[in-house]
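Hi Y.,

Following your request, here is the sequence exactly as I used it, all 168 residues.
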Amino acid sequence: MDRSIFVISEHTDGKISPITFDLAAFAEQIGRITQLPIEMVILGHDVDDIAGKIAESTGININILDIPGLNYYSREIYIRALANFFSLKKAALICVANTARGTDFAPGLAVRLNAANITAVQGISEHAGKLCFLRPADSGKRIAHICPMTDTAILNIQPGIFKALNHK
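Below is the corresponding structure, written out as tokens. Let me know if you'd prefer a different format.
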């Protein structure tokens, strides 16, 4: 099974969060480096319209996890549903927003997937042929270059760092 880069979209009250498009831009940048395909995951109930708008705007394949009754964010449901989803899909990287929601469920998902979780990602670098991720350290005085040592890494991406995609 081929590995992919996955983006977990954010939406509230039927509206797509702008960070979703930032995440897509970040994934596209990594995809150019790694040549890995990109897919997006959207969780919720009756989210077909939102998924269609994201697909039209980004050109990325969307996986809908339609969960009856999931009209509002739930940490436990997100972790369980995503862990089940990723037991069937091979993820190299999972891109999540560095927002209250993303930082709430990403660590629990990382534990379930035996994955690294790198927060506050602001950039990409390479070190000794490995893809590394830049994040602030020492209260922002330094930039750490973190290279995950696991098969899967969950990356919490800082909002506004990567220019949002607008393919169409």
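The helical segments are 19-34, 48-58, 75-88, 100-113.

Thanks again,
Q.
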